[in-house]
């Protein structure tokens, strides 16, 4: 029984009372009370509250004094929530590892490695890899995470080195690891290097459907449609039958290149091979028609999907909402949102962000705030949602409202991303509120998030104007410490 269902039941009872209504209401009160207690007593919530407070006496001391004892599930949940705060996540991870009757899970190691790699704390990351080797916890996924993070930071040689060094860590590279390397390179727009490695090593690792799909998608991102077609043909010639993922990638590439007719030919080819189009493939078509302002075709495709017995998921609905927004038919977009609720398809943060971006672009800030208040009741906002709202209020000069959104985000124990911090600091600098901007900058650095040069430069300029050189020196020292301790590439 969810809280939403319970609320719905409570409202029905109050509107249409029966003999058992009051007994049920008492039961619901007990339910809500127990739910609230669960929320309060949840160790992950308590730990997150301590970490969010940036305790001056230090994270480890504050956690020791709390008397909390973590379980593997609690540690994994806290690390998930603090994935954007690398050093804070690491400090918690270190503290948890020293607790009696507790051992880190592989998932916990992977979570903290991911967080540290985001902020380029590679020396600590490799120390953890060595600890995992000692405890016999290393696996293929460990190295795939590192390859992804290096590639994303455009450290291509380091990503390749990670693949080549696997055997030294007693992990034998296999096709999954090979695909992981190719995927990391392709997603970071290093497709040419990926293709070169594929050509060199394809005899050692026999390519499968996933291997070819990765390369096709990589050439699509380039974008290089002829090369994507060439790999697709090579796949078929090598008697590797395309699967639903490969077909979806080809449809996506062709639609982005404006070749919708050719994409429809691929869908027909799928059907001939007894591979039915999924909601994802329909969402690509709906999205493409929306971009091209072909709203009738978008709606027809949606209706055809339902006629073919394919249930619409959130991705298709989002594509349809986006299509209606593109042609300024907001009422239709709201109708789609209502239909989602009727059909019990839960909107996600992407649904919210599509509507917010559309309304803000049209300067309809009051309506955007209404949508935000409605959506946070039915789905969890993501970092982009909070950033969009904080930026909207900051740019309109309403810093007070920007801070209200910020405080709401913190109450939800959502760790701000680099962009969320930057947007609010920039707004405060524009408002010449150096004190609040400095507090946020200090919090950002303490969470292990390195501020962008532009944001730090803007605050620096304001502090110099206000002759607050001592504060600037303090922040500069903190930033230098973050950069230098330890940053080993």
Features of the shown structure:
mainly alpha; 28 helices; disordered N terminus; disordered C terminus
Polypeptide structure, described:
This protein is mainly alpha-helical. It contains 28 helices and no strands. The two termini are 50 Å apart. The chain has helices at 3-15, 21-41, 43-52, 59-66, 72-81, 86-97, 106-118, 122-134, 140-152, 156-164, 175-187, 191-201, 209-221, 225-237, 244-256, 260-272, 279-291, 295-307, 314-326, 330-342, 349-361, 365-375, 383-395, 399-411, 418-430, 434-446, 453-465, 469-484.
Q: What is the averaged pLDDT score? A: 89
Mind telling me the C-alpha Rg?
Answer: 26 Å
* Spatial separation of the terminal alpha carbons: 50 Å
Count helical runs.
28
Amount of helix: over 70%
Structural class: mainly alpha
Tell me the fraction of residues in β-strands, as a range: under 5%
Main sheet characteristics: none
Order of helices and strands: HHHHHHHHHHHHHHHHHHHHHHHHHHHH
Low-confidence stretches: 1-16, 19-40, 485-489
Shape: globular
Write the layout of secondary structure elements.
Elements: H1 3-15, H2 21-41, H3 43-52, H4 59-66, H5 72-81, H6 86-97, H7 106-118, H8 122-134, H9 140-152, H10 156-164, H11 175-187, H12 191-201, H13 209-221, H14 225-237, H15 244-256, H16 260-272, H17 279-291, H18 295-307, H19 314-326, H20 330-342, H21 349-361, H22 365-375, H23 383-395, H24 399-411, H25 418-430, H26 434-446, H27 453-465, H28 469-484
Helix pairs in contact: 1-2, 3-5, 5-7, 6-7, 7-8, 7-9, 9-10, 9-11, 10-11, 11-12, 11-13, 13-14, 13-15, 15-16, 15-17, 17-18, 17-19, 18-19, 19-20, 19-21, 21-22, 21-23, 22-23, 23-24, 23-25, 25-26, 25-27, 26-27, 26-28
């Amino acid at each position: 029984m969810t809280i939403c269902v319970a609320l719905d039941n409570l409202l029905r009872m109050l509107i249409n009372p029966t003999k058992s209504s009051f007994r049920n209401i008492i039961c619901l009160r007990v339910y809500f009370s127990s739910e609230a207690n669960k929320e309060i007593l949840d160790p992950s919530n308590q730990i997150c509250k301590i970490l969010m407070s940036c305790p001056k006496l230090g994270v480890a001391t504050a956690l020791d004094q709390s008397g909390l004892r973590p379980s593997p599930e609690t540690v994994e949940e806290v690390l998930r929530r603090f994935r954007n705060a690398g050093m804070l996540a690491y400090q918690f991870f270190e503290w948890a590892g020293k607790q009696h009757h507790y051992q880190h899970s592989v998932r916990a190691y992977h979570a903290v490695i991911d967080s540290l790699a985001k902020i380029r704390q590679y020396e600590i990351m490799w120390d953890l890899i060595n600890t995992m080797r000692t405890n016999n916890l290393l696996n293929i996924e460990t190295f795939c995470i590192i390859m992804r993070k290096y590639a994303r930071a455009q450290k291509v040689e380091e990503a390749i080195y990670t693949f080549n060094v696997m055997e030294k860590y007693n992990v034998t590279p296999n096709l999954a690891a090979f695909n992981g390397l190719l995927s990391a390179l392709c997603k970071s727009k290093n497709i040419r290097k990926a293709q070169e490695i594929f050509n060199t090593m394809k005899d050692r690792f026999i390519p499968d459907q996933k291997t070819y799909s990765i390369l096709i998608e990589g050439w699509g991102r380039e974008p290089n449609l002829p090369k994507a077609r060439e790999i697709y043909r090579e796949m078929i010639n090598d008697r590797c039958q395309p699967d639903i993922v490969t077909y979806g990638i080809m449809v996506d590439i062709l639609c982005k290149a404006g070749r919708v007719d050719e994409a429809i030919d691929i869908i027909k080819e799928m059907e001939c091979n007894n591979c039915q189009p999924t909601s994802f493939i329909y969402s690509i078509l709906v999205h493409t028609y929306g971009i091209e302002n072909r709203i009738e075709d978008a709606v027809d495709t949606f209706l055809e999907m339902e006629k073919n017995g394919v249930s619409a998921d959130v991705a298709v609905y989002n594509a349809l909402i986006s299509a209606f927004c593109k042609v300024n038919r907001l009422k239709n977009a709201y109708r789609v949102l209502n239909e989602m609720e009727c059909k019990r398809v839960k909107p996600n943060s992407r649904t919210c962000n599509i509507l917010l971006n559309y309304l803000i672009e049209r300067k309809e800030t009051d309506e955007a705030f209404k949508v935000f208040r409605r959506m946070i009741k039915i789905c969890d906002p993501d970092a982009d949602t909070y950033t969009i709202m904080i930026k909207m209020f900051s740019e309109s000069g309403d810093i007070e409202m920007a801070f209200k959104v910020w405080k709401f985000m913190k109450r939800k124990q959502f760790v701000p991303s680099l962009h969320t911090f930057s947007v609010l600091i920039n707004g405060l600098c524009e408002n010449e509120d150096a004190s609040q901007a400095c507090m946020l900058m200090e919090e950002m650095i303490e969470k292990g998030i390195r501020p962008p040069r532009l944001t730090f430069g803007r605050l620096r300029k304001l502090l110099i104007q206000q002759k607050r050189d001592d504060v600037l020196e303090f922040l500069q020292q903190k930033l230098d410490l973050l950069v230098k301790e330890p940053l080993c590439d």
